[in-house]
Amino acid sequence: MKPLTIFYILVFYVIAQLLWWASIMVRLEPMRRGMVFGEGFVFVSLMAFGAYKLHRAINKEKKINAQQKNFLLSVTHELKSPLASIKLYLQTILKRDLDKAQQQNFISKSLLDIERLADLVENMLLATRIENKSYSFPKEPFNLSNLVDKIVARLQIHVCDAEALMTDIEPNISIKGDDFALSSVITNLIENAVKYSESCMPIHVSLKRNNLGKTIFTVADLGIGISDEEKPKIFDKFYRVGNEDTRKTKGTGLGLFIVKQVLDHHQATIKVKNNLPNGTVFEVNFS
Questions:
Q1: Quick one: angle between helices 3-28 and 33-95, nearest 10?
Q2: How does pLDDT run across 196-205, given as a tens digit for each residue?
Q3: For residues 213 and 285, is the Cβ–Cβ distance under 8 A?
Q4: Residue 57: phi, psi to the nearest 5?
Q5: Alpha-carbon torsion 60, 63, 68, 71, what sign?
Q6: 117-138 b/e (C-beta count within 10 Å ≥ 16 → b)
Q7: pTM
């Protein structure tokens, strides 16, 4: 029998006993009926409130456990897929007499898979260090425009043979911050847009200063979009859009958690908007 079921049986038993004893006391001392009813009402209210809070806590714990299970399964898949690909490429190079061009092609593809593994490991390590408050976020002036250009160029080859990442990057925008942590923000937002978009659909990446001199970084896709109900939850650790059983996109549920934590430490804000006619826009505002 489940612990929660046992608990509710005990609650029902205690309340039943209370009502039984209350009825006996009322029969024995009718003049104390008001006191018995009053104290009984307080006791039952406290029991009901405690049962409600415990029920919520247990459901929350079950949800977290389900998300962690999904996270472990996702990480396993995310690790196995590029490792299997790298192994196949290297075995092909060793076992077959390939010309130099074919070898270079296989080696290049292996390096791309290694980059995927590196991004995954960096995300996991950064998320752990942020949660443990062991990451200090060292801040120095750096060129944000160059960083965005560099990340877009690296991710472009992962997205599609055609150019799918459309950029509008204002040059020489510099800010004071942690370039390593902010590179995770940029990478995760772009990869998130890619994951929830159809293959080779355009994704618009923008970096500009507005009329007030504030730096605004935007990633807009034409993907499946995010419902208004889910928008407040997407920055929670392990949370992923959609049902845990039916979701088919890759991911660990750490990307947007890292994005929000890093931006909070930079006094920056992020907004999630609907893209028209469909898709999502993530807008980051740096102070």
A1: 180
A2: 888 778 899 9
A3: no
A4: -65, -40
A5: negative
A6: eebbeebbebbeebeeeebeee
A7: 0.69
